Amino acid sequence: xxxxxxxxxxxxxxxxxxxxxxxxxxxxxxxxxxxxxxxxxxxxxxxxxxxxxxxxxxxxxxxxxxxxxxxxxxxxxxxxxxxxxxxxxxxxxxxxxxxxxxxxxxxxxxxxxxxxxxxxxxxxxxxxxxxxxxxxxxxxxxxxxxxxxxxxxxxxxxxxxxxxxxxxxxxxxxxxxxxxxxxxxxxxxxxxxxxxxxxxxxxxxxxxxxxxxxxxxxxxxxxxxxxxxxxxxxxxxxxxxxxxxxxxxxxxxxxxxxxxxxxxxxxxxxxxxxxxxxxxxxxxxxxxxxxxxxxxxxxxxxxxxxxxxxxxxxxxxxxxxxxxxxxxxxxxxxxxxxxxxxxxxxxxxxxxxxxxxxxxxxxxxxxxxxxxxxxxxxxxxxxxxxxxxxxxxxxxxxxxxxxxxxxxxxxxxxxxxxxxxxxxxxxxxxxxxxxxxxxxx
Length: 441
Ligand code: NAI
Hints:
Elements: H1 11-22, H2 26-38, E1 45-50, H3 54-65, E2 69-74, H4 82-92, E3 96-97, H5 104-116, E4 121-124, H6 128-137, H7 146-154, H8 157-165, E5 169-172, H9 175-186, E6 194-196, H10 201-224, E7 232-236, H11 240-251, E8 255-259, H12 263-271, E9 275-276, H13 279-285, E10 288-291, H14 301-304, E11 311-315, H15 325-331, E12 332-339, E13 342-347, E14 352-356, H16 362-365, H17 372-392, E15 400-401, H18 405-418, H19 428-434
Parallel strand pairs: 1-2, 1-4, 2-3, 4-5, 5-6, 6-15, 7-8, 7-10, 8-9, 10-11, 11-14
Antiparallel strand pairs: 12-13, 13-14
Helix pairs in contact: 1-3, 1-4, 2-3, 2-17, 3-17, 5-7, 6-8, 10-11, 10-17, 17-18
Bound molecules: 1,4-dihydronicotinamide adenine dinucleotide.
1,4-dihydronicotinamide adenine dinucleotide is lined by residues 174-176, 204, 208, 212, 236-242, 259-262, 265, 292-295, 298, 316-318, 361, 363.
């Protein structure tokens, strides 16, 4: 079996951590039990490009239990848990291509390995597999990273076409990936249907909000061990992820400031009790800064120049483009790693700014990503959407689809049941009242 990981001897540690996480993933576990019996993915090759965490391990084991021939590569150079990668290779015979801290060339070597698997279904977190396949489909090979480009160029045109045509569909985990895919669909170039798992209610309402909320604070605290209480904590964006971070920072006693570009979201932040102001104002007073916008250059050179000595800056959005790190380098006279995941940048007047996790997703770089209990729902969506793709891809157009509502509702129902929470059901009278325009007069 071909694979590329840091150290196979870490497998024992990884196995225990995977087992621990799986204990909080009852919905996915139930799906796995059904997959073992029904094998809905038999005959399907599946390439997954996801953060290689304990929760992802449960997902890929579920897909394999469903009969899929799965390969896993990293969706971020810093998010891989090497012990998990080792356990998946050693215990489950799943080829993994992921090493924590891998350089760009290795990251794309791993993407290439996932493409070389010639999948029928791809599963992305940030659309890297799908966008590479589209560069290949459109013959824009020079747009690819050299590690993928040289391999793609070694294939003849027929082989490249066959690679793309073999894909029946894809699923996408995160907001930023969905934005990339919608823009492909808008440009009329999408070659196969995609399900936007991120758009399921049982995904973004919980994973983006509570998952990112808790794990981003966890990452910042593990990286710095600084006190949140009493600090001025600037959250850039007030979307699903940033609401969760603002809520948790506030709960720990921080004075939270929100920056936004969308008037509705900004208004919501004001009414949720936060101060809202432009980043150029917030930059002067913040102790901590976190970006979660999916946008680029949210904190720029001119903002770093306004910051207090000791300001701590992190990103928890998908790509490492939210902070203008090049700008920070330009205004710095010296840089040193002062702790793991903390780089100190010295400005020429002696002030220091601390950048966490090289500007990459701090919850995955310095902590362990989302708690398994929320990933239970996100990955239940992934597993059921992979099954849906295998069954229904032929009926779908080359578009971005939401998660079918019955899948979303079923996951919520199973999660509540697993939590021991019961709810009311509508009486017959209530049902007809709620469905009739004539009632209520
Ligand atoms: P969202 O679309 O709900 O929210 C983004 C918000 O940022 C919007 O309200 C938008 O108006 C605002 N924004 C855009 N540009 C801005 C700017 N220059 N300044 C201030 N605000 C700005 O998106 P969501 O779901 O909250 O995701 C945000 C990012 O986090 C995405 O990149 C997503 O892929 C990523 N993500 C990260 C996770 C993690 O584990 N750290 C988990 C899930 C998503």
